[in-house]
Amino acid sequence: MILVDANNYIKRIYHSGQDPYEMFLNFIDSRRDQRIEVVCDTSTSREARREIYPDYKKGRNTDSDPVYFTIYDNIVTIAQHFDNCVVVKVNRGEADDYIMARAESGDTVISNDKDLWPLVSRDVSILIAGSTKVDRQLIESKFHYPDPELIYVNKALVGDSSDKIKGKMRFGKAAYAKLTREQLYYIKDRLETNGTGMAQGDDDLDALANDESVKLSWKLVNQLDCEVVTLPTIHTPLQDFLDANDINILGSV
């Protein structure tokens, strides 16, 4: 199965300088024998995290180009015309929450969202920038250690400015790099269990794991339950839709 992070992928092909419709149809046409799920955020997708932290992704730059939104909507509708495609709209939770819950070993994810990189630990292939595959070497170059299991620990401690996730105050990449892998896994265990049932350990590491900002950041970066709607397949000819919307693609069906 292929899981497409719709907004992430469509924005990327829109800004590529190539025809996004042709790129998407070529993508679908080369994968007719595979199930494809096109996973879309909606206007309410961020609400669940904003109930936890109102500033989540506040002020984040979004693509305000009306042409982009038209192309986005058209590509989603095009996907509905293919029997091997399923369009999933995430009304509560975000696209990456659904993908994290859905992806299994052997699946492929199309996205450059680093929040999905922990899926590497499940033997899920993550493709970014065309055919570039996320591997442990790439993870190490971005998060100091190659372990996909530690990515969320990094975000909880260091923060993620793009999502307005703060992490621990005055704790940056240099401080993170001073912690050993064993120490980070200890912190991970503490955050996952909230310390419940764990023996007394390292006071300094416990202080990091018990920091309120770190615990909040951990909750924000981890997967939330989703409420989704699956859009129906459209059985009228795709060419009728393309013609009605003045979409001209060489060799379109």
Task: Explain the overall architecture.
The longest helix has 15 residues. The mean pLDDT is 92. The chain starts with a strand and ends in a 9-residue tail after the last helix. The chain has twelve helices and seven strands. It is of the alpha/beta class and 253 residues long. Helix 1 packs across helix 4, helix 2 packs parallel to helix 4 and helix 7 packs across helix 11. The protein folds into two domains: 154 residues, Rossmann fold (3-Layer(aba) Sandwich); 82 residues, 5' to 3' exonuclease, C-terminal subdomain (DNA polymerase, domain 1). A seven-stranded mixed β-sheet has the order 6-5-4-1-2-3-7.
Name the beta content range.
5-15%
The main pleated sheet reads as: 7 strands, mixed
Rounded radius of gyration (Å): 20 Å
Give average pLDDT, whole number.
92
Distance between the termini: 24 Å
* Unreliable sequence segments: none
- N-to-C order of helices and strands: EHHEHHEHEEEHHHHHHEH
Summarize the structure.
It is built from twelve helices and seven strands.
